[in-house]
Request: fold
Amino acid sequence: MTSRPARAPEGARGDLFDPLCPTRRLLDRIGTKWTSMAVKVLAEAAPEELRFAALQRRMPGVSQKMLSTTLRNLVRDGLVERRVEPTVPPRVHYRLTALGLSLDGPLAAVRAWAEEHMAEIDRANRLSDERAEED
Amino acid sequence: MTSRPARAPEGARGDLFDPLCPTRRLLDRIGTKWTSMAVKVLAEAAPEELRFAALQRRMPGVSQKMLSTTLRNLVRDGLVERRVEPTVPPRVHYRLTALGLSLDGPLAAVRAWAEEHMAEIDRANRLSDERAEED
DNA sequence: CAGCATCCCGTGCGATACTG
DNA sequence: CAGTATCGCACGGGATGCTG
Reply:
């Protein structure tokens, strides 16, 4: 994930069925393991900034490499702003841009649905598993 | 993807930071390449059913294998209902369950955001690329 | 018609180690 | 402190071929 093409859409203004359709490309971003969590954490802290270490503390399990990669991609996408204090050692601060904040709306809807309905999905899975065993 | 663990959450009712948190697990599902498109197509057709071939026709680029896999996972998750007509050759019909339909709400919000804002993300990417070249 | 089985490759991502 | 570099592997997913 170190470098991501994210090429401009070219003739990809087509509907959802185009492999380069906007939704597919957005999901390729927020579908990566740590991205949506980073957006959520930054959205909760907004309008304050968060430093790298603070972000890592609020995202248990993330490695330095993946957090760094995730943030770099978010910055590149214009969803996050990065500010470096020129001290030694340097302090780096992150916060959502207006665009990033606007994305947290739809993401919050997804989170709400997940909180409310994932248990039903788990139930459906258990039912399917039982049916599969008693064949 | 032939088999998916999707194990019950155990003690995973924790917040977003749990690796088994509901949002993370939901994104693992709708983040797969064809899932959200299948949900959209089925939601548009609702309450009518769609046959396998009709789904494939409405999802250009999907292979039989991936469509089959995607649908099997959706059925297993209780988001899609599968009905087989016992004829020869068989006709198989799919439609969203109530749970699946409810998921289309948040997904529609994500789609709307993507349609409206992906161009800005592309612009941000181009800007970053230019800055990177003129170093 | 609606799949499942097999082969194969790209890459997301974790673990570990090093640096200005 | 806030990263980058390297290694390694599991896995998503495409191509192809077979079947009830």
